[in-house]
Structure formats: structure tokens, C-alpha cells
Amino acid sequence: MSDTLAPAPDQPKAAGRSALRSLNFTPRFWVSIVLIVLVALFAFVGDMLYPYGSNQRVGSLFDEPTPQHILGTDNFGYDVVALLMASTRNSLYNGLLAGTIATFLGVFIGILAGYIGGWFEEFLMGVTNIVLAIPAIVVLILISVSIQGTNLQFLKGIIGMSLVIGFTSWPWTARSVRAQASSVATREHIDVAKLSGARTFGILLRDVLPYLASYVVMAWVLQVASAILAESTLSMLGLGPSGTASLGVELHWALAFNAVANRAWWAFLPPTAVLTIISFALLYLQSSLDEVFNPRLRRGKKKNLAKAAERRAEAARRLAAEIEAEVAP
Amino acid sequence: MTETAPAPAGAAAAPVVLAADHVTKQFRVAGGKLTAVDDVSVEFREGQVLAVVGESGSGKSTLARMLLRLLPVTSGAVLYRGRDITRIKGADLRRYWHDVQAVFQDPFASFNQFFTVGHMLRRSLQTADLGGETAEQRIERCLGYVGLKPEDAVYKYPHQLSGGQRQRVMITRALLVDPKVLVADEATSMLDASLRVSVLNVLQDLRRDLGLTVLFITHDIGQACYFADQVVVMEHGQVVEHGPTDDVIFNPQHSYTKRLLADVPNLKGSLKSQRLG
What we know:
The complex is a heterodimer. Chain A is an all-alpha fold. Chain A has helices at 14-21, 27-44, 46-49, 80-116, 118-133, 136-148, 153-156, 158-168, 171-184, 188-195, 200-236, 247-256, 265-293, 302-327. Chain A has one domain (31-295, 304-327): MetI-like fold (Orthogonal Bundle), CATH 1.10.3720. Chain A is flat, with a radius of gyration of 27 Å. Chain B is an alpha/beta fold. Chain B has a single domain (14-263), classed as 3-Layer(aba) Sandwich (Rossmann fold). Chain B is built from twelve helices and ten strands. In chain B, the strands form two sheets. Chain B has a six-stranded mixed beta sheet, with helices on both faces. In chain B, strands 2-1-4-5 form a four-stranded antiparallel beta sheet. Chain B is globular, with a radius of gyration of 19 Å.
């Protein structure tokens, strides 16, 4: 029986490194990462280097770009570049907070429904479908309007906005996570974990969630992108946070002061461009993550492909020679 | 430990450990109900190997999962040492799983690919009564039963093991908690022939040394013949024949058993006739 044992134990600690190497970081992934890092540097490091603050009045209504203020001033006379940095920062905060809340809720509800099943699943998915059937924008408008009427200061700012968006945008994630979780729940290793005495919570955390991790990361990136866009939509309609800057708020004021008719392109084009870059980078990242995690989508490096083709050709040649040798006598 | 060959008289004397009492399982499917297990009553006596044989879809795995309490029964009862455990929950159920353990069919799907073997084995021991041993000692002892050394397995991830090693690690995991009953649900069907025999021998040794009661579920009547004391033949969710292995294999009464036996490749005859011819 001992002849079927492994010949020699190889280094036990090699697994961690090989796990990282097995991920496939494609050019698409790097392009999106570079874009995201650039936006983040602009938002978080830029204002330390830039001489003007975002709440510092430096001119008057829609001053044209000058060498000191390369994108001019907005309708209140603030420097557009300084304002853009603050807005981008707030929009990123909002996206991260709202996206994380939505992903967390969606994964929590989806994984519970998918794993436990039965009437509990029917109930949770019923709730999810009801929430899904209500137009999100209507709920967002109603809640954000009522928040502006309360006395709670922190809710009126960007945090309140993020909470509202986070607590209304989880249903899609919940539905897709449920589908994935219910397929993982039928795997035999779940039965093995149960027989090992693991509790339901432990099974969800250790035996179900890791199998969904790549999917959850992708869903999170998508939620962050859509939260940033949702905030901009609301803010542009004038329902956004009061007293703070954000990309949508900038667009709102540009619209209110007829920046387009006044040909003040520097007031509305820069926030639009940043918004476009952020959502493009995040969506691109999301689609590239699919390749990073899914081995079947890997397009091998050109070098490897060429090598494999050569190997195949070599094998074919050898086979042909063998057949010939067999046929000849 | 009585280590006798299948002897019906001695078998009847051993106490019943696990029993299914008129167990039925129905699945709701589109357009009606599907009865996977239909009013089955079987008894497992201590220290015996009982094989459940049947083709795919005969309900044998469903029966095993109900005995393991991984699947709720539609009607009937599962008895462990005379106690009704059909509806126990929580801590009671975990205690039941200290006594009744299982090895499953697919040695690839049985592993959580994110954990090392050692992590998985220690997880099994979290709630177990170690009786003076450390976890490491217990793991080493149980790996020894299946012919593995800790350094061969403990630090490895499942994908670094071969199919036979994985299945033996799964047997180790089942043995860690000192079970009284082991349910082997098609435990050898995904292994190649030589490994199959080695796993069967491991189970046979364990049954002899630890007094384990084994429920062996298989579609291969040859393996059942090799290994089991008693054979239960299932067809379409019903038990069609039940008795000591020798009676069932060499004197089958039911037409389905005869058909199953006819499907076993007759090695001796065919080879001999070829060589002579």
C-alpha cells in the first residue's frame, strides 16, 4: 500500500507564492489600475501641492483660464482645479463607502438565502425583488430630500448621501450572490464541514465565501462605480449633499449659472471628464478582474502560446515519422 | 473484538447500532413528486460491514445522507442505539456526528481548496474529546491508519495530493473523532482499481482494529462481495433483497440482483477460454 504514497514532500510553504503567481494580471488590469491611481493621487496628494484651497475665493464669476488658474474659476470665484480635487476626493469617499455598504448587504443577504434555502430563501428573495421593483431613483430622491430636512448635520453631507445610496443599491448583488452561493452549497465539502462540527456561520465564512471571493470583489468594484454615478446624478439634480463639494455638485452649479450658454467650458468639462475617467477605469478594472480570477479566460502570453504551438508541431512531426516507419516495412 | 467471517448467527447477536425505520424521502420536482427512497427499513449491527448495492438513481446515496442527517426525511425515523435522532438539532446533532462519520464519493469536491489538509483535520478536532492526546498526536495516529505520515499531508493543499491520497485523508478526517459508524458513500468509485483495493483493505483493517461499523454504499456488487458481511440490494428506492453476502451473491432470489450479478465481468471464464483457444 505504501507504494502509492507521494514520493517526496516538497516545500510546504510554496503554496502562498504560487497562489499569487496563478493570478493573471493582464494589460487591461494594469491600465485600469494606473488610471485609478492617477485619479487618487490627483484627489489626495494634489491639494497638498496645489497653492489654492477649494474654499478660497480667488476671482469672480467664470474667470477665464490664466497661467495662475489654469482652469479658471467657477461661478462663485473658486479655483476650478482646487475645487476639482476636493470634489474628486468626496466622490471617491462616497463611492467607497456606499459601494462597500451595498456589497456587504448584498453579499450578506445573498449568501444567507443561497446557503440556507427553503422558505427563508423565498422570503429574502421576495424582499429583494420587491426592493428591486421600486425605481431606485425615486427612493433616492425621497430619502435625500427628507434627509436635508432633518437636524442631523452629518447626514446632510457626503456621508448621508453614501448611506442612502448604499442602503438602496444592494438588491442586484444579493440576487447574483444567492445564485452563486446556492451552487456552492451543494458541494460535498459543505457536508464534510458539517460533519466536522462546523457551525452555520463558520461554514458561510470559511467554506462558502472564499469560493465567491472573486465574484464579490468584482461586484464591489461595480458597486463603487455605480455609487459614484448615482451620487453625481442626485447632486446634479440639486438633491445632493449641502455645503460640501462633489463632482455632481460642481455640475449642478455649472448648470444653474448657465456655464454652457456662457461658454465657460472649464466649469463643466473638467468634472465630467474626471467622472468619465473614474467610471471607465472602474468598469475596465471589473472586466479585467474577470480575466485575473478566471483561468479559462486567460489568454496566455504570446511567448507561451508560440512555445505551445511549437510543441504541438514537434509532436505531430514525431507521430508522422513513427507512422511512416511503421508503414515502410 | 470478534473478528469472525460473515456469520449470520453471530451477526444477529450483535446489538443494532444504527437503523432506518420505514424511511421515505420524496423530492418535489416539476410536475409532481419523486420518491427517491420508499419505505426502507434496514439495521446495522455493531462491528459489521453492510453494503448497499444498486444502480445509479436507486436511492442508496439519499438513504445514506438521511442516515447522516444531512438530508431531512419525509417520513419514518432514524434510530441510533435505539434513540430517535430524526429531528435532533444543534449540539445534539454535532454529538451524533462524533459517533457517525462519512467519506464521500468525490475526493476532489470533498475538500475546501483554500485550506491545507492540517487545517481541515484540526477543524474536525475542535469539538472532539481528545482523551489525553494532543491534536497533533491524534492526527498522526489517524493518518497512520491509512498509511500516511504527517509530513506527507499536513502542510499540503488538496491540489497537491493525488486522488488516492485525498480519499485516504478524507478517511482520516472521518476517523479523528473516534466514530462508531462510518458511512462510505461510493468512497471508492472515483479511484482507479489498485487504489480501490487499498482503500477497501484500509476499511477492512479499521473494522477489525477499531470495531467500526461500516455502511458501504456502492454500485459495484463485486466490491460488496469482497468486503461486506450483509448486502442490501436497492432498486427504485426500495429494498428488493437483504441478507448475508454469501446468500445474496451466490443464491440471489430477486431478478434485479441476478441482473446486477450478470453484469459483473467474469474474469476467470473469459480469460481461460481465450488462453485455451
